[in-house]
């Protein structure tokens, strides 16, 4: 099994997606620090769990005793979607840890299910995605999908094959720069908890965007994630109307949701797989509807970053749609791609905030991005 011993309390920031580091900084500046519950799950059935002890040890080494940890045990069987780990603690103690503990889990579970990573397959996939992207920038956002010990090596492969950058500082060394990123769901949900607790009348996505604008270096492009509440169009327009510095929005609609207005779009004929024309998640109609809505309101200069499962096939399909959009409207459908989809032989794990503790009501309250509500389990044990 790939080791993660080089990730320590002193250097884990280098292995962390940049958007989590920036999110904690914003929350600290704003004085927002709710008690939250995270839920971790995997997307595949697994005959024998692995990596839990290592992930828990990492979390405990950084967050200390201030976090409550509930988990399954290494060696247990597992069904996709069931909670593997639940965490309860202050969001500022937990928000920076997600990339590394997911990487530890994904790396161990992939080893358990598929054996060692095939780096030639990763190189081939990276090359094909860049070619399929047809000169649009592609950014590597896959640190959480692999053992942290592999991040620098995989990022280097992506750099050599033409990717434009990546989300961690350790990986960004290949480009002789720093990690990049937008705004995570966890930041928007933290603002949501604060808004609810204080009875405020604010749009959480816009509030998080304003926090980013206020506290993050002006040289960092203002790119805002807009799918947290499945109001992709409404929250994009609200942000564009109120944030003059907005450079782009990022759509990452999860596979549980139909993106806003995506089922009402009339597309021109496209020769692409049906799954990218219908269904849930980031589909061509989802991005088409979003681009048209922005253009109609005069926000042609606000770019769109697409992410979520952009392997070679999906990239080719979206580029086909982009060409058609340019023929019809004289501009790009979307502007860049964020992806970590470099191999099929992988177990992806995901972590979501699913609740917060209301200190006013003295009870746990549901709080999650749309489609990712808390899953109850009687198998988790507190450690």
Features:
TIM Barrel, alpha/beta, 2 domains, 383 residues, nicotinate phosphoribosyltransferase, six-stranded parallel sheet, six-stranded antiparallel sheet, disordered N terminus
Largest sheet: 6 strands, antiparallel
Q: For this structure, what is the CATH homologous superfamily of the largest domain?
A: Aldolase class I
- Rg over C-alpha atoms, rounded to the nearest angstrom: 20 Å
Taking pLDDT < 50 over at least 5 consecutive residues as the criterion, the unreliable ranges are: 1-5
End-to-end CA span: 24 Å
Task: State the share of residues found in helices, binned by percent.
Answer: 25-40%
Shape: globular
Oligomeric state of the chains in view: single chain
Beta-strand content:
15-25%
Number of strands: 12
The CATH level-2 architecture of the largest domain is identified as Alpha-Beta Barrel
Outline of the structure:
The protein contains 12 helices and 12 strands. It is of the alpha/beta class and 383 residues long.
